[in-house]
Amino acid sequence: MTKIKRIVYFVSERTGITAELFGKSLLSQFPDVEFNEYQKPFINSIEKAQQLAKELAEIQIKKGIKPLVFSTMPDKDISNVLQQAPCHYYELFAHYLKDIGNDIGTSPTHISGASHGLNNTKSYDKRMDIVNYTMTHDDAMTMKNISNADVILVGVSRSGKTPTCLYLALHYGIRAANYPLTEDDFQKDDMPQVLQQNKDKMIALTINPKRLADIREKRRSGGQYASLSNCRSEISHALELFNRYGLTVFDTTSSSIEELSARIMQEMKLK
Question: Residue 216 sits in a domain of what CATH number?
Answer without folding.
Answer: 3.40.50
